[in-house]
Write a structure and sequence with these properties.
By secondary structure, the chain is α+β, with helices and mostly antiparallel strands. It has 3 helices and 4 strands; from the N terminus they run E-E-E-H-E-H-H.
Length: 120
C-alpha cells in the first residue's frame, strides 16, 4: 500500500501550496487535489492501493496554537531580514530553530498516533 501525506505549506505571500509526499516521490500543487493528482501520475501500476493522510495546520496536543503563532511571527521576521541580506538576532534564531524542531517532533508524534489508530 502506498501512503501519501499531503501537507499545506504557507508561501512567502501568505497563501498555501500543497506538498504530496509518498516515500521519495513528491509533487506540489495549488490545491491538495492538484498535488495528489501530480503525485499519482508518478506512481507505478503496482501502487494501486493508496492511503492518503492530509495534515491540517490546526493546533493539537503535539504543537499548540501559541507555538504556531510564534513560529509564524519568527518566520516572517526571518524572511524580512533574509531579504535585506541580514540575519536574525541569535536569541530569535535559536527560538526559531527550537520551534522548527518541535514541529518536526510533533509531526512524528502525530504519525505515530495515527499509525496506532490504524493498527486497531
Amino acid at each position: 500500500m502506498t501512503k501519501v501525506a499531503i501537507l499545506p505549506i504557507p508561501t512567502d505571500r501568505g497563501a498555501l501550496s500543497y506538498h504530496a509526499i509518498a516515500g521519495t516521490r513528491y509533487a506540489l500543487g495549488k490545491t491538495a487535489g492538484e498535488a495528489l493528482d501530480a503525485l499519482t501520475a508518478q506512481l507505478s501500476e503496482d501502487d494501486t492501493s493508496t492511503l492518503v493522510i492530509m495534515q491540517s495546520l490546526r493546533p493539537d496536543p503535539f504543537f499548540t496554537s501559541a507555538q504556531q503563532e510564534r513560529l509564524v511571527v519568527l518566520m516572517a521576521r526571518w524572511r524580512t531580514v533574509r531579504d535585506r541580506g541580514d540575519t536574525l538576532p541569535i536569541d530569535e534564531q535559536i527560538e526559531l530553530e527550537t520551534l522548527v524542531e518541535a514541529e518536526l517532533r510533533a509531526s512524528s508524534a502525530r504519525t505515530a498516533a495515527l499509525t496506532d489508530k490504524l493498527a486497531r
